[in-house]
Design goal:
It comes from Brachybacterium vulturis. Pfam families: DUF3152 (PF11350). The chain crosses the membrane at residues 34-55. With 296 residues, the chain is α/β, with parallel strands linked by helices. It has one domain. Helices cover 29% and strands 12% of the residues. The chain has 7 helices and 8 strands; from the N terminus they run αββαββααββαββαα. It has helices spanning 30-59, 103-110, 157-169, 174-178, 200-207, 228-233, 241-256; strands at residues 76-78, 81-82, 124-126, 141-150, 180-184, 193-198, 218-220, 223-227. Strands 1, 2, 3, 4, 5, 6, 7 and 8 form an 8-stranded mixed beta sheet that branches. Strand 1 (76-78) and strand 2 form a beta hairpin. The longest helix is centred in the N-terminal third of the chain and has 30 residues, at 30-59. The termini are far apart. The relative contact order is 0.15.
C-alpha cells in the first residue's frame, strides 16, 4: 500500500485549524463612566470624613469648649467650657463634644474680650516656696502646690505667687469649706497640684483636649492652667482685676477639689464661684469667693 509522506517542514493540511476570533472589548457607555466616576468620588469623600473624625477624637480642634454646664463627671474643665470634675488628679481627660463648641467663642467676641497676641517663649520660672501658713486648722488636709510662670508673658513669678497664696489662704476661699490648707512648695515634683500661668498659645496646648481658644483657663488632672491674658486683662464681666484674679484661682482650684460647674440661682444674687463667670453671669452679680455664695 502506498502511504503518503508528510514533510516535517510543511504543515499537514488535514490538521489546519482556523484562527480564534478576537474577544470583543468591554466598552462602558457614557452613563457607565459617569457612574464609575461618582463611586470613586464618593469613596474619596468617605475616606476624608473618616480621617477627620479620627483626628478630632485624638486631639482637639483649637476651638473653645461649650459654655453649657453639665453634671457629667470628667477630669477636664475649662473656664470657657468643659464639664464637671471627679476630683481625681490621676484621671485622664476626655474629649469635649465637638457639637457643643462655639458658644463661648461667640460670647467672647460679642463682649470684645481682650486678645493681646502674646506668645510665650516656652521657658518657665518656678516661684520660691512660701512659708507655711501661720494658722492652719487642726486636722485639715494639706494640699501642696507649685506655681510656674512662662517667660515672655510679662508676669513676675513671685508677684503672682503672692496673690495666689493670698487667695488660697483667704477665709472666704475653699480652706474652711473643704477643711484644707494649701502649702506652696518650690518644685513640681513635690507638688500635688501645679499652677501654670502661661500665654494663650501655651494654655491651648496644655489644656488639650479642652478647647480654650486662646481665651480661657482650665484644669486638667493635677494641673491648673491660667491664661495670661485673663490674668492681665480680666473679662468684661468684671470691673475689678484683683477680684477677677481671685475668681480665676478659686474657680479652677475648685475643679481640682472636685466641684462641677454651677448656674446662677436668681437675678441679682451673688454668682456661685463655679459659675463660668468669664462668659456670662446669667443675671447674677460677680463673686470671686466660694464661701460668699452656694454652689448650685
Amino acid at each position: 500500500m502506498f502511504l503518503p509522506v508528510i514533510d516535517a517542514g510543511v504543515p499537514y493540511r488535514g490538521a489546519v485549524s482556523h484562527p480564534t476570533a478576537p474577544r470583543p472589548q468591554l466598552r462602558l457607555t457614557r452613563r457607565g463612566r459617569l457612574l464609575r466616576s461618582g463611586l470613586v468620588l464618593l469613596l474619596a469623600v468617605l475616606l476624608i470624613l473618616a480621617l477627620t473624625l479620627v483626628l478630632r477624637t485624638l486631639g482637639g480642634e483649637g476651638e473653645p469648649v461649650s459654655a453649657a454646664a453639665s453634671s457629667t463627671p470628667s477630669a477636664m474643665a475649662s473656664d470657657g467650657g468643659g464639664e464637671g470634675q471627679d476630683g481625681s488628679p490621676a484621671a485622664r481627660p476626655s474629649p469635649t463634644p465637638v457639637a457643643e463648641a462655639g458658644a463661648a467663642e461667640e460670647a467672647a467676641e460679642s463682649a470684645e474680650i481682650v486678645r493681646s497676641g502674646t506668645v510665650g517663649d516656652g521657658t518657665w520660672t518656678v516661684a520660691a516656696a512660701a512659708a507655711a501658713p501661720a494658722e492652719s486648722a487642726a486636722g485639715s488636709t494639706v494640699r501642696t502646690y507649685a506655681l510656674r510662670v512662662e517667660g515672655g508673658t510679662g508676669i513676675g513669678a513671685d508677684e503672682a505667687a503672692a496673690r495666689i497664696a493670698e487667695v488660697l489662704a483667704d477665709p472666704r476661699g475653699w480652706q474652711d469649706l473643704e477643711d484644707v490648707t494649701f502649702q506652696q512648695v518650690a518644685t513640681l515634683e513635690d507638688a500635688e497640684l501645679t499652677i501654670s500661668l502661661a500665654s494663650p498659645p501655651t494654655v491651648d496646648e496644655l489644656c488639650l483636649p479642652a478647647r480654650t481658644g486662646g481665651l480661657w483657663s482650665c484644669r486638667v488632672g493635677p494641673d491648673v492652667v491660667l491664661n495670661s491674658d485673663r490674668w492681665l486683662h480680666a473679662t468684661p464681666t468684671y470691673d475689678d482685676l484683683s477680684e477677677y484674679r481671685a475668681y480665676m484661682i478659686n474657680h479652677e482650684v475648685g475643679h481640682f477639689l472636685g466641684h462641677s460647674h454651677a448656674r446662677c440661682g436668681g437675678a441679682g444674687e451673688a454668682s456661685p464661684v463655679m459659675l463660668q463667670q468669664s462668659i456670662d453671669l446669667q443675671g447674677c452679680v460677680p463673686n470671686a469667693w466660694p464661701a460668699d455664695a452656694p454652689s448650685r
